[in-house]
Design a protein that fits this description.
Elements (H helix, E strand, L loop, with lengths): L16 E7 L4 E8 L1 H7 L6 H18 L7 E8 L3 E9 L3 E8 L15 H5 L2 E8 L7 E6 L5 H12 L4 E8 L8 E9 L7 H15 L3 H4 L6 H9 L4 E8 L1 E2 L5 H9 L3 H6 L5 E5 L6 E5 H13 L5
Bound molecules: zinc ion (ZN).
Zinc ion binds next to loops.
């Protein structure tokens, strides 16, 4: 008899979803996000240090929390760039729920080996900015919100952005953990936000404070506990305030790289430059998100350039 309960393939009830909710009596809406398989698939092809893996989970949760709040048809990207040891965190989510992420360490730097919550975003990312972009294709205007890195956590940076740039009271909690019985990383986030345009008297401010205090009463291990469903968590927190749950939206890991896109990128460079970059008669392009390798040989490149010389309008 073998016990398979501890292998990587074990599935849990944790899920990969966005649960939108509204708290009627408090004029607050919110979202609870959980990712497990989608998180694991985004990092498994990389050799990220544990601390960076955790940060990527937080970035994916935050991108999902923010991106799924907007009505759009396209891609929402959250990008955090700094001059510290972690130079880049990026996660994007499409309106179909396809999620991917990657991160970059500055060359020659090492991350401290510390536990969750022991190191702040300014220590890891230094000075820099957080940008949120909505891309709805070439015919639509791009929306971009940008803010300086200002906060001890990614969640705090986003909260500050909403307060300052959007004048929207927002509270966000994000946890990202590495160890659990299924052997996969998992991350979760909870966000509450005041409904825009609501009145702002003493009662409304008190209601908002109550929503935030209740939200902060949830513990990190509870947010990451697959025995606690989203509805259990939300009813436990807000059952006295008329919480209403909407349909869950599933998210999944999916990269948008393709041979076609890589070829277009290569062809956007002059032929001489591309040929100069060849090593051992080939060029290998690795997708920074999913780790897929695209390899081009000299004869293939010659043919590609020959093709666009013949049909310049096709690319
Ligand atoms: Zn890819």
């Amino acid at each position: 008899m073998t016990d398979n309960s501890n292998t990587n393939t074990a599935t849990s009830d944790f899920g990969n979803f966005v649960q939108t909710f509204q708290i009627e009596d408090l004029d607050v809406r919110g979202r609870l996000v959980r990712i497990e398989d989608s998180f694991w698939e985004a990092v498994q092809a990389h050799d990220y240090p544990p601390l960076l893996t955790r940060l990527i989970g937080e970035t994916m949760v935050l991108a999902t929390v923010l991106g799924t709040a907007l009505k759009f048809d396209g891609i929402f990207t959250l990008q955090v760039q700094g001059d510290g040891p972690v130079s880049l965190l990026i996660a994007d989510v499409t309106s179909d729920g396809a999620l991917r992420a990657c991160a970059k360490l500055r060359e020659g730097t090492e991350l401290p080996e510390v536990g969750p919550g022991e190191v702040s975003i300014p220590q890891l990312l230094g000075a820099g900015h957080m940008a949120m972009t909505v891309d709805q294709g070439p015919d639509m205007e791009r929306y971009q919100g940008i803010t300086e890195i200002n906060g001890a956590t990614l969640a705090e940076c986003a909260q500050n952005y909403f307060r300052q740039s959007e004048q929207l009271d927002t509270a966000i909690a994000i946890v990202s953990g590495l160890d659990n019985k299924a052997g996969k990383p998992r991350a979760a986030g909870l966000m509450v936000q005041r409904l825009p345009g609501a009145a702002d008297g003493d009662n409304e401010q008190e209601a908002w404070r109550r929503a935030v205090v209740l939200m902060s009463s949830i513990r990190a291990d509870e947010l990451l506990d697959d025995k606690l469903s989203a509805s259990k968590i939300l009813y436990r927190l807000y059952h006295e305030d008329g919480v209403r749950l909407f349909d869950q939206r599933i998210v999944h890991h999916e990269c948008r790289c393709s041979e076609e896109r890589v070829r277009r990128t290569i062809l956007s460079f002059p032929k001489d430059e591309v040929m100069d970059m060849m090593e051992d008669g080939q060029i290998s392009v690795t997708c920074e998100f999913c780790g897929n390798d695209y390899v081009y040989y000299e004869a293939g490149l010659e043919a590609m350039y020959h093709e666009i010389a013949m049909h310049p309008t096709d690319t």
